[in-house]
Each structure stands twice: as structure tokens, then as C-alpha cells.
């Protein structure tokens, strides 16, 4: 009974859902504040993300008659569950809740599921804006998927391990992989931008073109669940990157400071670049991210 209670606390409180949402929400607020200040605006207060969640969950949910209702309801749940499972896999705090051999592959797969869920949501809504956004999401996901996986597998091949905790332990003893494989790191960071839905790869939900994209027809609790998943994503994506390429952290404070550095990087790129079209995004990842990932992958196999 005590063991079950301990697991539930770790899964739902720390380092699970509650902790991840709070930190992710603050990272998301920092991004919005940083962008606003760079544009001469004040920006939102620190509690804006959490106030938005409360407002959305308190509103009535309206699902259009033409939508596929069970898919519309299932999509945000899939997004949240996949991100919480990644948190359970990552060795945060006292250690991973469910570490196992090959958990790196599962984490990579789970990190792509929120984008897949958003695509399903747009198709299920049967809205023109939602369908266009879903198609854009699918095309961009197809372009960054391979370099994203190859960049991660570079460190896996070098350490001969597909376990995240083993990769972190190796970096603690021998130095971070960012210095050993800088090209794979750059490729991975480029792929992080569409995963987090930031410019220049935010065409799927371009509000000036297709309003809310795949989420145009969402409101109330379902939209609140997607917003909750967005906050989780702002925590999970930087933490996963830090563990994989920047050595994790000796403690949670060091880990979060490194994550904040990645949030600043994403914010700067989002500010200085304009939105790419989906065909431009596709060409970009094939021209730049894929070769960078392949070069370091070959290095890890031939010249470790």
C-alpha cells in the first residue's frame, strides 16, 4: 500500500504531473514575457498560463455536430498521457519512476505523440482550418522525424546503451555529448522547435492564416487539456534534451537552469525568424538537420 502511494505521488505530484505543469507553465510564461519585451510590449503576468487553464476548464465544451466526437475527446488525453509517461521515464530528482532497457526509444516515440494527437484533433473536427493545420503538422513531422531520431541514436550508439539513465551517467563521468557531438546537438535542437510548435516551424497553428489550426473548433475542457499538454511540453522537451545531450544535472536546480537556457534559445529563434511554409520547412530539415545528424552518427560508429 505504501509503495503504491509512493508511486502515485511521484506520478501525479513530483516529479510527475503537478510539478511538470507548474515548471512548464513558468517556462512558457518566460517565453511569452521574453518575446513581448523584445517587441516593446509588457507581456503577461507570471500566473497567466494557470489563469487560462482555470478559465478553460470552467467553460462549457462545445463539440460540433460534424466532428468525430470520440476522436476529438481522445486526442488531448493521448497528448497528456504521452508526456506524463516521459516524465516517469526521465531520471528526475531521486531517479526514474519506470526506467528500463530501451526507454530512450520509447521516450522518442512518446515525444512525437502530442503532434500526432494535434493532427488527429484537426482531422476529427472536420473543419477546413483544422484539416489544413493537420496536413501541415503531418508534413513537418515527416521532415524532422528522421534527423530527430538519428541525433538521439548518435549518443546511444556511442555509449552502446538505449537507457537514458546510462547515457546521463556516462556524461557525468566523461563530459557532456554537446561537446563531443556538436553537429548532432544542433540537429536535435532544430528538431526541438517544431516539437514545441515555435517559429519558424509553427505553420500548423499559424493564427494569422488558419486561426487556431487543428484546435480551431475546440473550446472548454478539451481545449484546456490541450493547453495543459502544451505546458507539459515546455517542461518535457527541454528536460529530455538536457538529459540526452547536456549531462542532466547534479540536482534539480541545476537541471532547471540548463532547461531555462534551452527555453531562452527557443525564444530567441522564435523572435528573430519568420514563419516558414511547410515546403520550406521540409527542405530545411533535409538540407541542414539531416546531414548534420548523419555526420555525427557516422562519427559515432567509425571514430568514437
Helix content: over 70%
Our count of domains comes out at 1
Structural class of the secondary structure composition?
mainly alpha
Number of strands: 0
Strand content: under 5%
Number of helices in the DSSP assignment: 13
Distance between the termini: 47 Å
The best one-word shape is globular
Integer average pLDDT: 91
The major pleated sheet works out as: none
Radius of gyration: 19 Å
How does this structure look, described?
This protein is an all-alpha fold and about 300 residues long. It is built from 13 helices and no strands. The termini are far apart.
Features:
globular; 13 helices; mainly alpha; 304 residues
Précis, in short:
The protein is mainly alpha-helical and 304 residues long. The protein contains 13 helices and no strands.
Topology readout:
Elements: H1 2-12, H2 17-38, H3 48-58, H4 69-89, H5 103-125, H6 128-159, H7 164-174, H8 177-180, H9 182-195, H10 207-210, H11 220-245, H12 252-272, H13 278-302
